[in-house]
Records
---
Amino acid sequence: MLNQEDWKARWIGFDSQAAPMFRKEFMAGKQIENARAYISGLGYYELYLNGEKVGDHVLDPAQTDYEKRTYYVVYDITGNIQRGINAMGVILGNGWYNQDVVDREKYGWKDVVYGQPRFIAQVHITFSDGSEQLVITDDTWKASGGPIIRNNIYLGECYDARLEKEGWNSTGYNDSAWGPVKIMNGPGGKLVSQKLQPIKKAGIVNPVTISNPQPGVYVYNMGRNFSGWVKIKLKGEKGKTIRLRFAETIFEDGMIDPASTGVYATGVVQTDKYTFRGQGVETWEPRFTYHGFQYVELTGYDREPTLDNVAGVVVNTAVENLGEFVCSDSMLNKIHEAIRRTVLGNFHGIITDCPHRERCQWLGDADIISGLSFYNFDAYLLYAKFVRDIKTGAINGLPNAIAPGRRTSPASADWGRAYVQVPYFLYLYFGDTSIVKEHYNEMIDFMEHLQSTADHYIISEGWGDLFEPGAVKSARTPENITSTAFYYYDAALMAEMAKILRKREDTDRFTLLADSIKTVFIDSFYNAGNKTFGSQTADALSLNFGLVPEGDELAVATSMMKDVTEEHDGHHSTGHMGTKYIYGELSRFGYGETALNMLNQQTYPGFGDLFTRGATTLWEYWGEKEIDETSSGTRSRCHPFQGGFDVWFYDGIAGINPDPDNPGFKHIILKPQPIGNLTFANARFQSVHGLIVSDWHIKDGRFIWEISVPVNTRATVYLPARFGQNVMEQGKPVKESNEIKFIAHEASYIVYSIGSGTYTFVAGKDE
C-alpha cells in the first residue's frame, strides 16, 4: 500500500501481563479469487487464519526506529481463506518495541520501551465477480491473555500450557469471556513494506551429549554455537515447571557459565520456562525470543531426560547462499565455515555484534563484515536497510554508533565511516546507485562534521582496533592512526561517489581533501627509516587504503612480514580492523606463505588455538588476557567482526574481484593468489549478472584454471606469471585464440581480456 491513506484499519492493543491474543470472525460470502493480508505487529506478531499460522516468518517484523518507520508484511492468503465464516487470530510479543527488562543506565540503555504492544491488520479479498471486501482491525475485535506469560528478547520466554485456549484462532470458538480491544495510536513512524528477507527457522541442531553435573541438573551440549532456541518434547505432571538456561560455555564442573552471553551488561541469564498441562508428551518452542548458545541447562524435570527430548532450532534472516569457497588448506576451510556460521548467527533483521549480550547493530561491526557478507550471502537488502537505519537513528543529523534503537551514543569517526563506505560497497558489488543517491546529502553532512573535528586533518577519537591479542582497546595502534586512515578512505570514496553522480565540484573537493589527509598522515605517522607506520594494523590499513608513500609499498609489506615472523613468532597482533586486511596485503606483496602460516597457528593468539579450546564460531577475543574489569568473565563467543578477512578468500585466493569502473561485476577482475603450499582453490559467486566461477589447481607443475564468466559481461584475467610457459586454453595455445586478447605483463601476472563463457587455462611447464 503506497499511501498511508490506504490503511483503513486502526491500531489495536489489549491490557495484559501475558502476550495478548486477538481474534475476529468474518464472512466471505462469495467465490474467492485472491486475498492478501497486510499486518504490522509490534514488537513481534504471529498471524493465524482458520487455525493455521500464516507464513513461516518468525520474530517479525524486523527492528526499526519505530517512531520514524515501521514495517508491515504482506501475505498471499488466498489458500487460507474459505468461502463462508473465517476466523483471524493474532498473538503479540514484546520484541524490541516493549523491551522492558534490560534498562541499565550504566550502559546507556535508558528509556528503551516505545510502548505497549499493538498491531494493525488489513485483509483485502477479491471475489470472482470482481467485487472486493476489507477486513480490518477495529473495535469489533476481542482479546485475551494467553499462555505466554512472559517474553523478552534478552531474558527469554515463559509458557504455561494450562492457560492454552484450544481453538481460539478457529471459527466457532466461544470468546464470550474475552474482553474488548483498545484503539491505540500508531508508533509514529511511516508504515512501509518490509522489503527484506524475513527471519526464519534455518535448520535443526541435535545435541551431542547430555550430562548430569549436579542432582536435578542436566546440561545438553549442542555440539556447536548457534542462534535460535530449543524445541522440547517432554512429559510432565500438570503444573510442573521446567527451566531452560542458555550459555556458550561451561565450568570445569560441567555447570553452565553464562558470563560470555553478557550477564555483566544485561543483568539477566537467557532463560525459558515451560509449565506442563499434564496431557501426555508435550512439545513446545518459544515464539518471541531467541538465544545465542551451545549449552542448555534443564532443571525442574523429575525424570531423566534423553538426547531426543531437546532439539536446537537455528534462526536467522533467510538470506540465500551466493558464494562457495574451498581450498586445499583444511584450516582455512574450517575458519571459513566458522565465519559463515558466526555471520548468520548475527543476521536477525539487523546485523548484530553478538546474539546475546547486546544484539545491537553497531555501525563499525556491520561495516567491517560487509564484503564477506556480500560474497557469501544475498545480503543486499539487509545492508540497504542498515544504511536506512543509520539515517533514521541519526542524532542531530549525525550517525549514532548503534542503529536502530534507543541506545544512544554519537558515532565516532571510525564507526560512522559505515555511512560512507556501505553505500559505496553496495554500488561496487551490486552496481546500484540508488542508495548513494538516497543518502548522499547526509554523507556530505557527516564528512563536513569530520572536517570540523579534525585537527589539521588528524582525527584522534575513536574506538580503534578492538581486541588485538592482549587488550580490549588497542595498545599497539593509536586511535589517531586508525581514525585518520578511515577518514582518508571516506574522502577517497566520497570523491568516487561524487564522480558517479556527476557532481564535479564535490569530486574535486573530496579528491583534494583525500590528498591533504594522505600528506599529513604520512608526515605524522610514517617511519621512513624503518618503512612502517608502527604496527601490523597500521601497515595493513595503510597498504590497503593507498596511504603508503609511492614506491615504498613493498618495503612496508616486508616490514609488516618481519613484524609477524620476528617480533610475534608468526602470529598476528592485529585487532578487528587490521585482521581484515593483513592477510590480503601480505599475499598481494608476495608474502602469502606468511599469511597461511599465521592462519594455521595452533598457539595463542591463533584460530587453531581457539578451535582447540572448543570454538565453532568466532570469538570476540583471543584469550583470557582480553578480559577487562567490566566483563566479569569471558567475552562473546559469537562475534563476526574478527572475520572481515573472509573476503580475501574470494577476492584474493580465488581472485574474484569487482571492477570499480564497471561495478556489480559487469566487468570482472580475476586475479588469483596461488600462495604457499596451496594446491587448489575453488570459488563460486552468484553475481547480479550470473554465476562467476574461479577454480584453480596445481598439478605436476601446471596451473590449471577453470573460469566461468556470465553472459553479457567481460573479464580481465591475471594468470600467475610463474606458470607463464606454454599458456593453453581448451588445449590450444592462447595466442591462437580470437576470444582471448593479450593485454600486458604486469608484475607477477600475465594479463588477458576475455568475454563471457567457460574457459580452462593450463600453463606452467615448458615441454
Note: The chain has a mean pLDDT of 95.
---
Amino acid sequence: MGGDEEGTLERLKAHRRQLIDPKIAEHRGRIVKTTGDGLLAEFASVVDAVRCAAEVQREMLDHEPDLLDERRIRFRIGINLGDVIAEGDDIFGDGVNVAARLEGLAAPGGTCISGTVRDHIGDRLPYAFDDMGEQSVKNITRPVRVYALSLEDRLASSEPIATPRHRVTGIAIGLAAVVALVISAGAWWLWPATKSSPPPAMAASTSIAQPLTTPRLSIVVLPFANLSSDAEQQYFADGITEDVTTDLSRIADSFVISRNTAFTYRNKSVDTKQIGRELGVHYVLEGSVRRSGNKVRVNAKLIDAETDAHLWAEQFDGDIADLFALQNEITSRIAIALNLELTSREATRSTEQPDALDYLLRGRAAYWDWRGPPPSRDRLAETTSLFEHALALDPRSVDAESWVAYMLFFRVGSGWSESPAADLQRADELVGQALEASPRDWFAHHVKGMLLLRSQGRCEEAISEYETALALNPNWLPSLNQLAFCKIMTGSIEDAIPLVEQAIRLSPRDPLIRPFYANMGIAHLLQSHTDEAILCFEKARGTGFGWPYSFLAAIYGLRGEIEKAAANLAEARRQYPDGRYSSIARRKATGLYSIPGYWGVPKVAALFEATYFAGLRKAGMPEE
C-alpha cells in the first residue's frame, strides 16, 4: 500500500473477482460481509470450508507470477465451527470471533483451524495439519486448540472428495462453519513490521499428507441412548453426553472428539474399531439412560477402540427431584473415574522412546496409586523422578512444572527434604512460570494454593487459588478438600462440611479419600460434634496416614474414655516415631504445624485449644 496504493487495491479486487468469490460460491459458501482488506464467509459444511480455504491458498501461489515474492499479496485464513447468532444477513458471536482470532494466528499464505474443525473433518480431506497446541486468544475465555495447514500439504492433492450437501436453516441461532479470510497488511513484505514471526509449528512441512495419528489420551463420547419409554427424556441423555465430553476435555493431555462429530453416530449401528480408525482415538465411551418413575439409571462403559475390549463399566442411580444436580453429579463421577482409568492404562502402554507425555502419565499414575500420603520416601522419590524426567524433556511444559512443584511440596511436608527452603523456593518458581505461561491452568492454581496454605499459612489467598482451580475444573477433588480446610482455618467451619461431602459423594472410591474424611472430622470436632468426628476419623485412619489417631485420642480424652484415648495416642506415636506426638509443644512446632497461622485465625486457634489440645492433655500428652 505504501509503494502503490491504487495498484494494490486493484490487485486485491482482481483476486476477489477471479479467485476468492468464485471459490466460495463453488464450495457452496456465502459471503456475509467484507471488512476492508478481508471478508467473512459462512458454509453449511465444514469440509467445504476447509477445502475452499486450501484451494484458495494453493492457487494464490500461481497468481502474480511476474512480481517478486516479497511484493505478492498473501492471505491469512481462520476457520471455526461453532454457534453463531443470525441477525438479518449478518452473523456474529463466539463462533465468528474465534475464526477471526485464528486468522490472526495464521502465517501469511497460511490457514489455521480450530480443534473443533479438526475433529469434525477427521481424515475426510487429503491434508495434514500441524498441531499448534492450545492458544489463548483475545476476548475468548477458554484456550483454543489450533491446527495449521502447511504449504506442502496443500500441494499434496487436488483430487475432489465427494461430500454431502447441508442446508442452514433460517433460525435466529444456528450452527455454521464460519470462515474468516483476511489479507495481512496488504503484502508479505510488511509482515515483520506488524506481527511476530509465526510459530515453528506453522512452518511449511517437507512431507505430504501424513496419516492421522492417534493421541495417547484420545476418546470419543458417543451419544448416550435413551432407553426410557418417554421420548422427551432424550434431552437428559444428550445433556449427559455433552457434559461428559466437556468434563473429559479438562483431563490434562486429553484429546476429546467434539460433540458435533460424536452426534453424527447417533442411532447408528457402531463398529468400535471403525470409529477408532475414523476419528483417530484409542477409546470409545458409550452409555444409556433409563428413567422409571422418579428414578434414573445411567450406565456407562469404556471400550478399547483397537481391540473392542470392554475396559471399565459403571452404573449410576439417582432421584430426579433435582434433575440438573443429578446430571452434574453423574457426569462428574464418570469423568473422575475415567481420569483414573485412562491415566492408569496409558501409563502402562509400552513405548520404545519415552517422551515428556509418557513420563507425565507414569508420574500421574504413580501419584494416584499412593492411596493417601506417600507411604515411603522411596516411593515419593520415584514419582518425583518421573515428573523431573518430563520437565527435562520439555522445560516449557506447564504440566511438568506444576507436577514437579507439587512433588517438592510433598517432599517438604513429609519431612524428607534435605533443603526445605530451597525446595519450596523452586516449587514457587516453577508454579509461577506455569501460571505465567498458562494463567487458566487449573492444576497450576491448585498447586499454588497448596504452597500458599501449607507452606506459608496464607489461607485467604489459598482460597482464591482453589476457587479458581474449581471454576476451571470442578472435578479436581483435592481442590474441594483443601478449600474445605481453608474454610475451617479461616472460621467458616459450617461451609467446610458440604464441600467435603460433595467430594466424597462424587468419588467414594477415590484413592486419596482418607484426608477428605479427616478434614470433615476436624470440622465436626471444632463444633463439638464428637460422635460425627469419631466416625470421620475412623474412616480416615490407616497405615501411612497416622495423624487421625491423634485426633481420635483427643476426642476420647474429651469424652473421658481414657483407655481408648491412650491407645490411639500410642498408635500415632508408633506411626510417627520422630517425636512429633511426644508433647503439646512438639505437636505445635513440628513440620507443617510450625507455620505461622497454621492453626487458623484467633477464633479457630481458640477452638483447637479447647478441643484438640485439651483432649490430648487428657489422653496423657505432656506440655513439654
Note: The first helix runs from residue 5 to 26.
